[in-house]
Specification:
With about 140 residues, this protein is mainly alpha-helical. Helix content is about 65%, strand content about 10%. It has one domain: Winged helix-like DNA-binding domain superfamily/Winged helix DNA-binding domain (Arc Repressor Mutant, subunit A, Orthogonal Bundle). The protein has a three-stranded antiparallel beta sheet.
Length: about 140
């Protein structure tokens, strides 16, 4: 750390950049009529192996209450982006999976988020981007 930038200054700067990225992403998501919570759920479902996730597991991965996950899934289902089906091994469980439309939207949102990130980070040199990526990877470690 440099002498002219105390740790709380780093936190403020980091928070400011994160807020800018989030605001740009939210603006991009609005064009697709999805909320940040819905996008997070779509991302979890996109990454799911086997094509679906139990509702309970979705709530856990999103770090939200099961009732909140149900509301997110209800909204996505109403938009034709996900579908529910009975779990093949547990009659009490429901599996949530992306529809073809949901998978297409997932890709579109991923591209839109990338465009917004590129707009923000394009002012950095390649070396600065590499350093930032290394630093962020270090900070993400447990």
């Amino acid at each position: 750390m440099t002498d002219d930038l105390p740790a709380d200054g780093l936190g403020e700067a980091f928070g400011s950049v994160a807020r800018r990225l989030r605001a740009a992403a939210m603006e991009a998501f609005a064009a697709y009529d999805v909320t940040p919570s819905q996008v997070r759920a779509i991302r979890v479902l996109t990454d799911a192996e086997g094509g679906g996730v139990r509702s309970k597991d979705l709530a856990e991965r999103l770090h939200i209450a099961p009732r909140s996950a149900t509301e997110v899934v209800d909204a996505l289902e109403a938009k034709g982006l996900v579908e529910r089906s009975p779990h093949p091994d547990d009659r009490r469980a429901v599996v949530v999976a992306l529809t073809a439309r949901g998978r297409a939207l997932s890709e579109e949102v991923r591209r839109a988020r990338g465009v917004e990130s590129e707009k923000l980070f394009e002012r950095l040199t390649r070396a600065d981007r590499e350093s930032l990526a290394r630093i962020l990877a270090t900070l993400q470690q447990d």
